[in-house]
Each structure stands twice: as C-alpha cells, then as structure tokens.
Specification:
The chain has 20 helices and 11 strands. It is of the alpha+beta class. A 5-stranded antiparallel β-sheet has the order 3-2-4-1-5. Strands 6-9-7-8 form a 4-stranded antiparallel β-sheet. It has a two-stranded antiparallel ribbon with strand order 10-11. It is elongated and about 90 Å long. It starts with a helix and ends with a helix.
C-alpha cells in the first residue's frame, strides 16, 4: 500500500485520471431517477484517493480546466439566455431568479446559524443547490481574500467537504419535491395536467414507433384511377383540399414522361403521383383508394435533411401552425426542435424562439428555400475556432479582474471565473446573429463542460481528502440538515410564487423549478412520472438563468461570509 501511495504522490496526473475514471463509473449508477452523476462521482473519488495519499494538486491546471468549463457553459446557454429574458419564457425566468435568490439567502442563513466558515458555506450552497460550478467561483473568491495561504487552503478544502455532504440530498431532494411533494401541495395529478397541457399545445400522443405529424415522412407513388374525383383538378387545388394533412405531390408520371408538379398542372386518369406526407396518413387516406406503384425513377427525388439555425426575427414568436401555412414551407417537414440542447415536444401550438435549432427534411429545392427563411444551415464541422475561444477567455478574464464590486467594506473583483462565463455567454449569443462566428463542434463543447468540471472537482477532492473525515465529524450533521433546507426552501418558495403570483401551468412550473436549480434529473423524473415530455418547455428558459446565477453565487456567498 505504501508503494501505491508513493506512486500516486509521484505521478499526480495519473491519480487524477484514476479519480475521473472511478468518478464516471460510480456516477453512472442509478437508483430510480437518482444518480450521483460524473461530477459528484469524481468529487467522491478524489476525496477517497486524497484521503489515501496526499496527492499534490496544480493550481494552474485547476484554473485552466475550470475556465474552459465556464466558457463552454456560457457558449451553450448563450443562444437562449437573452431570448429567455425577453420572450414568452419570462415567467420561468422570473421563477429562476426568485429560486436562485432564495437559495443564496438560505445558504447564507444556514451557514450563519450553524456557525461554519466561508468554505463550508460555499459547499453548502453548491451541494444543496447542486451547482458544482459554484465551487470554482467560491475557490477563486477565497484565494482573493486577505488570509494566510494555509488558511485559504483549509477553506478551499472545506468547500469540497460540504458539497459532498449536501449534494446527495440536493439531487434526491429535488427529484422527490418535483415529483411527489409539489404535486401534493398543488393538489394535482401529474398525468392529467400533462395531458391537458399537451392538448392546449396541440401535441398528440402516439404509440411508440409511430411518427408524429411533424416528423418522419415518406414519398409513395399512386396511380389515379379513371373514376377518381381528382381528375380535372389542379395540383394546387388538390393540396389545398388536404392542407390540414400536409400532403404534397412532388412529381407526376404521365406515360413515359416525368412532369414537374407545378401548381397549375391538371391531373388526368392514369397519372402516377409521387405523394409526400406522413406515412400513416398516406396509408389511411390513399392506400385503399389508389393503387400503389413501384416506380423507382419517379420516386428518385433528392431528399435533404439538415439542421437550420433560426435567426429570422419575423418567425420568432410564431407558432408552428402559423409557419406551416406559409407557401415556402411546402414539402418541408419538421423532424425536431432543440432549444438549449433539449429536444422539445412538437405540436402546432409550439412557439419558436431565435436560437432554436430546427431539423427539417424534404426535397432538396424545398428545404433550401425554407432554410433561406429560417436561417443558415448548420453544416457539420470538426474545427474549433481557437482564436475566438482563446481571446474570449482572455478578455473575459481580464474584465473580471478589472471590474470590482463593493459589498459593505469589502472590495472584490468580479473574478476571472465570472468574467469568462460572461464572455462565453456573449460569444454564444452572437451566434444567434452570426451563426458562423466562433464555431465550436458540439463534441468539443461537451468535452469542455463535462471533462472540465469533472476534472476540476476531482482535483478539489484530492486536495480535500486528507481533511475530510475530521471535518465531517466536526460539522457533518449540521451541514446535512442545513443542506436539506437549502435544497427544499427555494423550491417551496418558487412553487407558490410560480403558481399563485405568476400563474404558471403546474407542469411548466415543475420543469421551471428543476431548471432553476439546474437539476436535469428532476426534470427527467417529472417527465417519467407525468408520462409526457412537456415539462422541458418550462425547464429550458429557467435553466440558463439558474446556471448563471448559481455560478455567480459562489463568489457572492464567500464575500457575504467574510463581512
């Protein structure tokens, strides 16, 4: 064992990779809807290894990885952040602000009540609100305090200890509150409320494997019989008659000739029509009335499937049903809508926002025409714009150092952490206006955010390991109870504020509560319990606000405790 200990001390970089591997492994285990997740798993793995061997930790490496994580988070939520502030998501945004402010006050009051230092207070906040990013901003704030280095190191270690103590209930408590306690307090049935909201939005539940009205489609060939009522009608007239079904004629075979399906083309007996639409509608409406023909040449139509970035101001705020009525959406089918990385349930009542990513499919000319209205096509890229990334982190960090805030008698810099977060937010927002600016592949952003934070907290755990057991024995039960209050109090206040002040729909409210405390697992649990995905509509506008506020709170609570 001494040999292993000396090896880990001599090669701390290998100890770090071991902590990450173990952290991701144990973080993947689930009990119901609860799991530690890779970040908290890495924290526990780091603490265990740190308790076994005093592994040296590089401060520069920690800062580098944390800044990379913060930029990635800002970059990810940037497209939705300002849109959430000014569009229909204003209620979830206000909810997130109230929940975040209540969480900060609860953490400060709890830390004061049980008489712990600023390190424990920061960990109480980050664990109780499941805001691991707050550990980083709190760490930087502690290093800026006028304290001996040994005391600073002790306080930083206390952050990890308190976070580890409070995080488990922070996640499990949020899941329990959103799926059990909150519905009881509101006196609602989750499944019935979700179904009612789906009906309001025009979302139709389908059996598993059946395509939605707004998603997958097919093109099939049908022969027009001699007695068909469509004979003598133009293609425009036919399509108008079934406009609510969104069936389109793409091409016509007349004898040996292939004809373009112009709006004035008149249908004749014996024509073979290439009809595009939902598979189930083609079967329901045409299968029994028209003979289906296998005509490879007729059906050999180039199909384009692309993601487009919604930047057109004229379309932002419109429902899908309104957009589907435009002439330029003819033959274009919507496969999915993503907002803030979350896929939204699709229905005619869904309102689009700038920054949404739409996956559309259809004949190449039709999709190209529609993309000119929506915004630029997002072509896959493997190249990261390191010029923008590097300059943004540098400029944001410099701004964070220069901008100073006075709280009481204490003057503290905004910090490089908060500056980098805001820089990422700005770059992310600029992508909604200039989508080709500062492009970073999704995989690269995911690596920055997931590995960056997991590595940072693993290093924090390694640093805290030697002090963990003694500190836990000193204040564990008090931290545990205070952490439970920090988790539940903001959600309780947010529940009544959202329902009776903002008048939010209960399902949207529960999604908003999960987003405000950035507990994706709680949102997923609401979806599972309600049997519906619609909670994500409240989650997506609240999540970026919660992410920003809770990250900044790490700095704020250290300053408050230092007064």
């Amino acid at each position: 064992m001494e040999l292993v200990e000396s090896f880990l001390v001599k090669y701390p970089e290998l100890a770090l990779f071991l902590a990450i591997a173990v952290g991701y492994y144990i973080g993947g285990f689930k009990i119901g809807n609860f799991s530690l997740g890779p970040v908290t798993g890495s924290l526990f793995a780091g603490i265990v290894l740190g308790n076994f061997a005093e592994v040296p930790v590089s401060g520069m490496t920690k800062s580098f990885l944390f800044l990379l994580f913060l930029f990635g988070i800002g970059y990810s939520v940037g497209p939705q952040f300002l849109q959430a502030l000014k569009q229909e998501g204003i209620k979830p945004v206000l909810l997130a602000i109230v929940v975040g402010a209540t969480g900060l006050l609860a953490a400060f009051a709890g830390a004061t009540l049980i008489g712990v230092d600023s390190g424990y207070a920061a960990g109480l906040l980050s664990g109780g609100l499941t805001a691991s990013a707050a550990m980083g901003t709190a760490t930087e704030a502690i290093w800026s305090l006028s304290l001996p280095q040994e005391e600073q190191q002790r306080l930083v270690a206390h952050i990890a200890i308190a976070d580890a103590v409070c995080y488990i209930f922070g996640t499990a408590g949020a899941i329990w509150f959103c799926t059990d306690m909150a519905p009881r307090l509101l006196g609602i049935d989750l499944k019935a409320e979700a179904l009612r909201l789906e009906q309001e939005l025009g979302i139709k539940r389908q059996a598993a494997g059946v395509a939605s009205a707004w998603r997958k489609f097919e093109i099939r060939a049908y022969e027009v019989p001699s007695e068909a009522p469509v004979i003598g009608r133009t293609i425009a007239e036919m399509e108008k008659a079934v406009s609510h079904h969104r069936l389109f004629i793409e091409r016509v075979r007349r004898g040996d000739a292939l004809l373009d399906a112009g709006p004035d083309l008149v249908i004749k007996a014996g024509d073979i029509l290439a009809v595009a639409g939902r598979r189930e509608l083609l079967i329901e409406l045409l299968e029994n009335k028209h003979k289906e023909i296998e005509d490879r040449e007729l059906l050999d139509i180039p199909i384009l499937v692309v993601d487009v970035f919604l930047t057109n101001r004229a379309l932002a705020g419109k429902q899908l049903a309104e957009i589907a009525a435009f002439d330029w959406t003819r033959s274009v089918f919507l496969r999915s809508v993503k907002r803030g990385g979350q896929e939204l349930p699709i229905g005619p009542g869904l309102v689009l926002h700038r920054g949404d990513i739409l996956s559309v499919a259809g004949p190449e000319p039709s999709v190209t025409r529609a993309a000119e209205q929506f915004g630029p096509i997002i072509a896959p890229t493997t190249a990261t714009d390191f010029v923008v990334l590097g300059l943004a982190v540098f400029v944001g960090g410099v701004a964070g150092v220069l901008v100073r805030v006075t709280i009481g008698e204490t003057v503290i810099a905004l910090s490089t952490s908060v500056g980098t977060l805001l820089a990422g937010l700005l770059v992310g927002h600029l992508r909604t206006r200039h989508p080709m600016f500062g492009r970073i592949p999704d995989g690269a952003v995911s690596l920055m955010t997931s590995l960056g934070l997991a590595t940072f907290v693993a290093m924090t755990g390694l640093h805290a390991g030697p002090l963990f057991l003694s500190a836990l024995a000193e204040s564990g039960i008090g931290l545990l109870l205070a952490g439970a209050a920090v988790t539940l109090l903001p959600m309780t206040v947010g529940l009544y504020f959202g329902r009776y002040v903002l008048g939010m729909n209960p399902i949207m409210l529960l999604g908003g509560l999960a987003g405000a405390q950035t507990v994706t697992a709680a949102m997923a649990a609401v979806q599972t319990r309600s049997g519906s995905p619609v909670a994500v509509l409240g989650y997506t506008p609240a999540y970026p606000i919660g992410n920003i506020l809770l990250t900044i709170w790490g700095t704020v609570i250290v300053v408050l405790m230092a007064q």
